[in-house]
Amino acid sequence: MKELMIGNAAVARGLYEAGVQVISSYPGTPSTEITEFAATYDEIYCEWAPNEKVAMETAFGASLRGVRTACAMKHVGLNVAADPLFTLSYTGVTGGLVVCVADDPGMHSSQNEQDSRHYAIGAKVPMLEPADSAECKEFAKLAFEISETFDTPCLLRMCTRIAHAQSVVELEDRVVPECPAYEKNPAKYIMAPANAIKRHPVVEERTRKLTEYAETASVNRLEIGGTQIGIITSGACYQYVKEVFGDAVSILKLGMVNPLPVQKIKAFAQMVNKLYVVEELDGIIETHCKNIGVNVIGKELFTPLGEYSQKSIAAAFGLPAKETVTADTPVPMRPPVMCSGCPHRGMFYVLSKNKITVLGDIGCYTLGSAAPLCALDSTLCMGASISGLHGYNKASKGGTENQSVAVIGDSTFMHSGMTGLANIAYNGSNSTVIILDNSITGMTGHQQNPTTGYNIKGDPATKIDLEALCHALGINRVRVVDPYNLDECEKAVKEELAVAEPSVIISRRPCVLLKYVKPKKPVVVDKDKCRSCKRCMKLGCPSVHIDADGKAGIDNTLCVGCGVCEQLCPFDAIHDGE
Amino acid sequence: MNTKGIVIAGVGGQGSLLASKLLGRVLVNEGYDIKVSEVHGMSQRGGSVITYVRYGDKVYSPVVQSGEADYIISFERIEAARYAHLLKKGGVIITNTQRIDPMPVITGAAEYPEQILEELTAKGVQIEAMDALTLAEEAGSSKAVNIVLMGQLAKHFHIEYDKWIEALEQTVKPRFVELNKKAFKLGYEFSA
């Protein structure tokens, strides 16, 4: 049967067909749907872990027990899971273990555009890179064969244009390999120095064997198209190259991007007059070529920045651009915004109004940085709001403690905010942390987490009590506010900043996009009372605008009647629509 | 057959993913090779969202680039203009006339270019503009703007009407089928 599938769904299908039994992941664009689709197969145990490190270690345990297992994450998630990865390389596996990692060139939804191939090189593990959905499925299955044959975790590298591009996939049946009886093997699995020192040469020997495999592997495919131009490429770049040149050039398409073949590349170089490497982000294949004495044209022609396309590659080769028409009038930008009725907005308004320094985190609430709220001072990585605030306050010797806060979402707090909060308590900074609890992992598209009370299947699960957790982490002052109530928020922020001990404010209201949250009727503007003061515009709500008559107007298709603008109006001109 | 390109442009939350799903389904049913490229995540939060659909005998790249689109389907007036450079010579823009102010316009940092479609028409671009929001509401939900526009697009294809309806039935949840069939028909019957 043929199906049109996004790459992530095809990977999930590959995991299913490969007989995977356990998948543990943390959501992150563009990797999230791998686990979401996998969870639709009842034969696979799937879960959302609190973070990527926990996910990979869960996969480690499943492999130790002898079953095929996987975890999925975005590129920056692999930073979090790097610790288990580098030593998993030493232990190797019992059941096949595949780590799916999705890069985001062009940063559609990420804070950097790091190239995860560096991890394959650093951890000395094999990495496959599919170029369409059919390959996503095929390579996911091959990754398990490689993992088990070479006794290693295997990375499967995706990028946005593979993960979120649909193409046709042929479905096959699921085959579950037999799970061996558990056998204790301390020399392989207890990575204390005496054992680990003996595993390192095993890793080096494995890389030698994998390089040999790369020489003949069918996924490293030669497509002959004349002797003038040769191009070495992989993944989405292969598709762009084919789009530009069709069969007019010779291509070495690498399906395995670590370790890279040596003889195969040398032989290809001999075949063609001019050899190019087309790879998004860093010049990794290029550096390998140069290391083995093969002269190639790479990053001097192709940028290390952003996402490639057939257009950018054609331009780099000096081919003419296609004819286009554009309007002369500029089209205003349309940046993403917090939704109408977003519960984060009220709290950000209060912080912005009081000119508080806000160390931010990763999630929908990063959008609080946009005009007109301009409420954020920093966003670094998952969890950095809390630990960053501690350092910021320590650096000012307490001078900033009454005018700075950290903001972090419920899921991000569970991911890596807890340890930072323990540090605030333990090392005594009088810091104020605001947990923006919208009862879901929002930005990645509504995944459950340990604070929501539901698991990945939507079944009831243990709901971690944030108040009790913060108390247990050493914070005495923990209070809950409703972000739709501006006075309550302002009072809480002012009081907690003023007290001489660390505190947590939980700003709690579920995401307005959750199905169980029923919107209220749009608010109504009393045009006679409105004096065009534009106070309501300070919220940056997409539902509120100024009409042609200069008075406030409400977009009825968007407004959910949250009433925050109502509270701002000094002339009582905005009313409940109920 | 050479590869054809279609661009679906809208504002996060307007349902461009469903439109591309329907288009993908009908083209797969017709036996084409096809690729659809979407962007999930941050831009979906009220930002400008773009989906590429390419189909033909053999499709390589999943993205449509400057001068490669046969059709641009736009869910909002200025989104049509934002991506007009993607249109190839002789291509057609099908756009909803609805205005949704982006944040820089709301805050007064930028002006909404009211006349931008007229400007593109003056430059020779073929534009089919329609009030898809009103038609969607007539069908029963303002959320059906996406399917109204797909109905208008369908007129340009040599694919039987029933095949579109079949694909629609395969794409949307059963309880929304009737509403969407109505929206599709209203879009199909509209003459720009």
Main beta-sheet strand count, sense and barrel state of chain A: 7 strands, mixed
Class from helix and strand fractions of chain A? alpha/beta
Task: Give the strand order of the largest sheet of chain B, numbering strands 1, 2, ... along the chain.
Answer: 2-3-1-4-5-6
Query: What is the N-to-C order of secondary-structure elements of chain B (H for helix, E for strand)?
Result: EHEEEHEHHEHHHH
Percent in strands of chain A = 15-25%
Name of the CATH architecture of chain B: 3-Layer(aba) Sandwich
Structural class of chain B: alpha/beta
Oligomeric state of this protein: heterodimer
Low-pLDDT stretches of chain B are none
Give the chain pair forming the largest contact, with residue counts: A-B, 61 and 64 residues
**Total number of beta strands of chain A:** 22
Helix content of chain B: 25-40%
**Silhouette of chain A:** globular
Q: Compute the CA-based radius of gyration of chain A.
A: 27 Å
